[in-house]
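Per reviewer request, we include the raw input and output of the structure prediction for the construct analysed in the revised manuscript.
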Amino acid sequence: MRHILATLCVAALPLAAAAEPIQFGAVFNQTGSQAAFDRPSLQAAQLAVREASDAGQGPVELVVADPAGEVARAASSTAAMLDANEAALAVFGLSDTDMVLAAAPEAAKRGRVFLTTGATSPKLPAEVPEWLFLACFGDNVQAAAAAEFAHGTLGARSIAIVYNAATEYTRLLQGYFRERFEGLGGTITESRSYDATDGQAAAIAGLAAADAVFLSAQVPAEAASGIAALRANGFAGPILGGDGYDGQDVWAAHPEIDDVYFTTHVYLGADNPDPAVRAFVEAYGRAYDGAAPDGFAALSYDAVGLLLTAIDAAADRTPDALRQALAALSDYRGVTGTISFEDGARIPRKSVAIIEIEDGALHLAREVLPEEVPAP
């Protein structure tokens, strides 16, 4: 399949001297295994710049690359996009750590920021020095939040872990969860891995007894199949997971699912009174035939705002000036919370939303800012 490149002419937030268009690259899987996360994310980015256009603000060109769910294409499509569009000041996108590890070095080689909208490995900034930033919290933060919620709110003292061993995200997430839960005095009764969704049943069968299960899955459909297997094997207790569970459609199709909790970036339910959240959800629904956004879409929406705010604050319109301005950004109020890059860190410190799945519906269980976070 050829690389898919598209250009969308839209507009930015208030910018000084906006005579010339500003160009950003956007890398999102519109096809393939990551499309469930990345299609809404691209739509949210397009919404953000359209809103700016409607406000009569300056033009931006958004150049889109689709790696089609393939890690190798994440690198080659990012490189091809930047080589064909040398005016691009920065790149943003992708929700998967392995894909970002392929794409971001291509941006860095060309002296461009890569702002990931949803890849949560806290190791990423060290793996791509200077040029890679996260719009989201790290896996060590969300895993610590899940562990503290399990121990403190659910009262779990023993947990069995089942995780997908094929991705960096799921491996890191379960490792950080184990570290924090044991640090709280909890016991991990057993840890089992699987390499693909088809291997879940074998990993779950005969799992050691525990108060709860931490199921580290990559995407909602994989999480749903693992939950079904756990229930079929007689486990009736709480099941926890990470932001790989985030997505409305899968859970709406499973009204039998309850007592499941997952960490994510923001709660977008109708009962969230935050004006920024309400405005975003309503605007997204108007733009996309009543569709409901997920947390990854909200992160992408915020990423556009972060980059445009950095450009407005930059000393000049160059990629390095944008990088320096983004690194100094503080107290940006987004849909997913207040974002600052403090003390040289390129991962923002943010609270974690704990979502409960009950009868197939999503509800906010709690907001958690972890007391302790494992080192990356």
